[in-house]
Amino acid sequence: MLRTWVIFYLISFVVLLFALFLSSQGIMLWVSLFLVIILIGVNLFTLYIEINRRKNRINKLKSISKVDDPEYHLDQKKLW
Questions:
Q1: Residues 6+ apart with CB under 8 A from 27
Q2: Model-level pTM greater than 0.90?
Q3: Is the residue at 78 inside a domain?
């Protein structure tokens, strides 16, 4: 997983450098701004997906870790 993130952020860094080069030349300012906006949007989208994936993994692990006794299905709160 870490290798994928490193490659992703290296590509992001190259795109930012290219946008900086375009804006420093004084040409295609709208292209450089568009590249930066797209890059920020893609980063936020991937972070949102990773947060949801981690939350789903935690919920799945919690549901797996619950121990169910097949012979005893009574709810303890209802007994008292």
A1: none
A2: no
A3: no
